[in-house]
Amino acid sequence: MKSTLLKILAGLALLVIGVFAGKFLFGSSGAESVPLPSTLNYRNAGISESSTEIKDFTGNVIEVKKGSSIQEAVKKAQPGDLIRVFPGTYSENVYIDKDNISIQGVVIEGKWPTLDGKKEINDAFLYSGNGILIENFKIINYKGNAIMGQAGNNFIIRNNWIIDTGVYGIFPQYGKNGLIEHNVLSKIADAAIYVGMCDNVDVRHNEVFDNVAGIEIENSRHCLVENNYVHDNTGGLLAFVTPGLPIKTTFDVILRNNFVVNNNHENFGAPGSTVSGIPKGTGILIMAADDAIIENNIITGNNNTGITIVDLANGDPKANDPNSEGNPDRVVILDNIMYDNGNDPIGEIKAIMLTKMQTKGPDIFAFGGGKGSTIRDKNKYRTFGIDSYGPAQIMDTRDVVTMRTPEPVPDRAVSKEELGELTYYGVCAGCHAVGSRLIGVPTEWIQMIHKDNPQGIVDYINKPKNLRDDYPEMPPQDYLSEEAKMAVAEFILSIDIDEGFKKKVPLDKITAK
Amino acid sequence: MINKDILIKSGISGMLLFFILITLLSNNSSDSLNSVPGLNANCPPGFKLNEQNECKAQNLYMLYDSPNNKGLGGLQTGLPEIRDGFSPQEIDLGRYLFFDPVLSGAGDMSCASCHQPDKGFSDGLATSLGNNNLKLKRAAPSLWNVAYLRKLFWDGRASSLEEQMQGPLFSKEEMNNSPAHLLETINSISEYKKLFQEAFPDRNKRSPIQLNEIYTSLAAFQASLISLNSKYDRYAHGYHEALNEKEKEGMNIFRSFVARCAECHTPPLFTNQEFAVIGSPEPNGLPLDPGAEIPAQDKTLRGAFKVPSLRNIEKTAPYMHSGNFSTLRETVEFYTQGRGHAVPEGEDLRIHWHIWEPNLTNYELDRLVDFLKTLTDESFKPKVPERLPSGLKPSVYILSK
Q: Which fold has domain A416-512?
């Protein structure tokens, strides 16, 4: 008995020594042992092909520690910079109106940098710049979105853990060429991942559950939704056209290798929202989208239907848009594993199935318009409304590894001359013109004063010093970028004044006729 | 009235001749106090003259791409396609016509009566006043940046400026003119004959002024009204100090998916040019305006109106299609008072899905107003002509009827 006690004490002592020794040995190196920025070396093995996704950052690393603000770091950041955010709770709205900014959480011993909206703040991240990367954040309790992009091409959003962030979880809008992968999202009142009015987006390896809609591809083209685990939502995977939006089409969408399981959650979507009309128990919903391919998914336990294919008139009769073509055309259903769907159909599908003397919903349910759709191995499933579907003309989509563009979408290239010209006519021309006095002096005066000295014009733009009593003082135009200031200075000096005057009098044109 | 005008005009013509003589002799092009100067051969600001004597739009948004060429997106997104390419002379002639009350049947209203430059090219009234001070049914829409719009009128019933202007010109309730009377009047004014010849050098000198020449000139002037240099624009182009913290907060509320303003009022034009049923109330218990339901002949568009641009919105109070809200604050508050809360009983409107219950706080509503005021830019505001070819006063001066 006594020896047992000694053994325990000795063990405890050893443990204490071990802890101290460990602290001594490793404690001071804690800062250095933080994992490398994963942007340097990020490997993703897919089923079809492995790919390495490198997001270049060419600038500085800015660190944000607990107690400070991510937005302050964004304000300091220049294009190319990487902002690393350490564990801690950050209750803020971070907005990124710059290009090529990477924001990366650093997870240490299971402690995440957490953005907590406390149900008071609208959005965790808003961005409008190109080349934005956001990864490794836990985002909770926002009212609007976890991550929302308005425009912004070449985005990467990955490895985020998002719970109850309001309307959407991850929502890029008006973006081209994006990657959304390895995110886990739950308890979102609309779509957990909502690709809206975008092009060339891959959505891969995400887990979405307990949301109204799992993953929604809406009014977007060229999207690949692959290897996602989509379970316990009201509706799992959606490819939609929503009427009334300015970009009117959805086509070329591949839904491949996903688990679409038990999507039977009560619908808690906001009244009036498009998703509030989705019946619970919907595995995959294709509404008005064209050229959608459904391939190699495991679609089970969805109590209404496995796959619903519907036109706008039946699927979303609330809204109307004469410019939206409402039929789902050329849907292709390839091999999928489907069983145990339709156990408890509701609403219209229940009523329709009852007309067929059936109480179960089908694996595949098609209703309304649409033409050219095909299916492989039609007899494998319990179906409704696909009598017109012919045999699929393709075996698989293995040639499509990604829907993203081979190269990043380039910025619009504008020469220095063009920039100078756009700035002159777009800004300066409000007050300056060749050959006449507007608010400021005629352009040729500026030319005379600053002959061969564009820097003189730049200095004046930054800090005007009024030279004439009979003219009002020019407000500083220092908001122009350094490039634009020099470009416009050089442009002003290059204007052919005689030409300007000649253009001013087109009377010779008249007399020539 | 016209007789008197003719008298004045012949006087003017005489003096003009005299001055032309003097000008030719002395080569001195100083303007006469009594005559309209020749047409401006320079493009208005925001436009560059090309070799074909066309004014082509130039602005910093041309530095950016726009997804699917829609001109919609975020801060650095290109604008929608613009209607440009008018000649400087067409634009300047349009300016005279725009302000000239001689375009109306009774010679007492011009386009500018309801679209005043100092009121954001609206008129400061809940609903405009028409012929004989008749109270009209809708508010005058602003004309800023109208060259970017595909549909005109609140209900979108016109697809071009030329089509649109024939509404007010020939409506009994508005300018109350007729095509025949308009042509007769314009052709009786010798100075207009001269100016049309200048603006349309290819025309047959002996043929009378045509309606389409009037329409083109008015369209040219309206399409030259560009406002893209606001504080917001400076921020958008990368100068983040242009907005103060409160305005930035407002911008983030504006584009958040809680308030959802930017979903329809999408930058850079701050409209997505779609039609939306938002269920805003009519003033004083007036019956519901069916809006786009009528021209579209579509019940589902009952109560739908074109999403207006918010540029220079600070200048165009009161707000909404029938001016029910006198301030921006009241207007933004409408959106947080509940989906369909102002829909009259018995109406079953298909309220737009973005109208919901965002539960915006008073603080947030104030910030939204702060942000909306950063969209003001009148730096390219055109000058009101001091004199008109008709000899009438530009109608902005004979307001407050």
A: Cytochrome Bc1 Complex; Chain D, domain 2 (1.10.760)
